[in-house]
Write a structure and sequence with these properties.
Blueprint: H1 3-7, H2 11-22, H3 34-50, H4 56-65, H5 78-82, E1 101-102, E2 109-110, H6 112-117
Antiparallel strand pairs: 1-2
Length: 122
């Protein structure tokens, strides 16, 4: 599912992934707390958004700046796509609350409850 995202990682992120591989918890470590589980779930939401095919040109940009590829198509940043200025005037697609984010995958506008608390994975 995240294969296109993994291919487009910047060179500095490769070092992080290698470090992460060797810092996995051991069986003797205490189980994660509820707060750690919530944090991991929210980080997963961010990864889910960034792995959207919409952001492939955005993720190619560091490779262009580093000289690894020659061209990069025009792109929108995550802030421009997920948090447009008109978002404050739009209601959530699932309720009548003000929207918090525009999903980069399904283009729904969602409030805090439906995106963060209900863990929106489309």
């Amino acid at each position: 599912m995240y294969q296109s995202f993994i291919i487009m990682l910047s060179p500095s992120n490769v070092v992080f992934l290698l470090f992460k591989r060797y810092s996995m918890p051991s069986p003797s470590d205490p189980p994660p707390t509820r707060e750690e589980e919530k944090l991991a779930a929210r980080l997963s939401l961010i990864l889910h958004q960034m792995a959207s095919p919409f952001f492939v040109p955005f993720l190619q940009y560091p490779w262009k700046k580093g000289g690894y590829i020659d061209a990069c198509p025009p792109f929108m940043t995550p802030v421009e796509k997920c948090f447009p200025s008109s978002l404050s005037e739009i209601d959530c697609d699932q309720c009548d609350s003000l929207s918090f984010i525009a999903c980069a995958r399904c283009n729904q506008t969602l409030c805090w409850k439906h995106y963060v608390l209900d863990f929106h994975y489309c």
